Amino acid sequence: MENQLMYESPLTGSVSVRDRWGKGAGVMTNDGVTFSLEWRGNRFEGHSPDSLELVGEAVASAEPPELDRGDLCGYELTWSTPVTVMTGAGTERFDLTAQLTVPNPHAPAPGQEYGVSLTLAVPGGDVSTARHGDMESALLELQRNAPDGMRMAICSTCALSDYHPVGYGFMGDLACFRNSKEEFRKVSSKSALLDVWDSRAGHVQETYHCPDFE
Questions:
Q1: In a structure prediction context, what are the per-residue pLDDT tens digits for the chain, which is 214 residues long?
Q2: What's the burial of 57, exposed, middle or buried (CB within 10 Å: 0-12/13-18/19+)?
Q3: Residue 80's Cα: distance from chain center in Å?
Q4: In 7-66, which residue ranges form alpha helices assigned H by DSSP?
Q5: Which of 9, 12, 54, 195 would be 29's cystine partner, CB 3.0–4.6 Å?
Q6: Backbone angles phi, psi at 140, to 5 degrees
Q7: CA R_g for the chain
Q8: How many Å apart are CA 169 and CA 204, to the nearest integer?
Q9: Buried b / exposed e across 150-162, counting CB within 10 Å, b at 16+?
Q10: Burial grade of 100 (CB within 10 A; 0-12, 13-18, 19 or more)
Q11: Which H or E run contains 96?
Q12: pTM for the whole structure
């Protein structure tokens, strides 16, 4: 993501990671483009938290990470992100907790189920979702489950964003059209979206927010 699309400094915080060896703490940094996970002495990086590649060689350990061609697998990752929410009292920030499961595709027997579930900590009680295959679908359910008068003001709910008609991945493939607002507002079909696709400002993460939110 280009600097002008960033609305805050990179987010760094403690996360929980569970694998076949048990549950442990890690540190994850999200700079708007790349997720970096420090866990059990290893570093993993990726465009999306479901696609974290080992950087360098794995440290010698009695509890090695499970890898699928270099990508971390067989894990459950839990992390929190502050998100902007519009309520009757104005604009507030609440913590959004995501629990993502990425199974090992080479496991001898079915076990974990791929997907993410979300929980938004709001006054009066948390709002949660079932498990979904991508962040967009989970956020849509979360908005449906939110109390009346509460709306998430994030890139996923912004009128200036959309996905490529061909498809998108788990997270981070949302195109932002804040630099070509007038052209994008006229889009009414997939073919029209393709006509303005190259005018996008870049790709954003679904949970972000910027001053151009509509």
A1: 444 445 567 899 999 999 999 999 999 999 988 999 999 999 999 999 999 999 999 999 999 999 999 999 999 999 999 999 999 888 999 999 999 999 998 877 666 799 999 999 998 899 999 999 999 999 999 999 999 999 999 999 999 999 999 999 999 999 999 999 999 999 999 999 999 999 999 999 999 998 899 9
A2: exposed
A3: 10
A4: none
A5: 12
A6: -65, -45
A7: 18
A8: 12
A9: bebbbbbbbebbb
A10: buried
A11: strand 90-102
A12: 0.92
DSSP 33: S
Q: Quickly tell me which residue has 């073919």 as its tokens.
A: 191
What six digits make up the tokens of 136?
């967009």
Tokens of 19: 């694998």
| Distance separating alpha carbons of residues 149 and 89, to the nearest angstrom | 10
- Residue 20: how many CB atoms within 10 A of its CB? 13
d(CA 123, CA 94): 9
Q: Count Cβ atoms within 10 A of the Cβ of residue 81 and give its class: 0-12 exposed, 13-18 middle, 19 or more buried.
A: middle
| Distance in angstroms (rounded) separating the CA atoms of residues 158 and 67 | 36
- Can you tell me whether residue 179 is helix, strand or coil? coil
Question: What is d(CA 102, CA 19) in angstroms, rounded to the nearest whole number?
Answer: 10
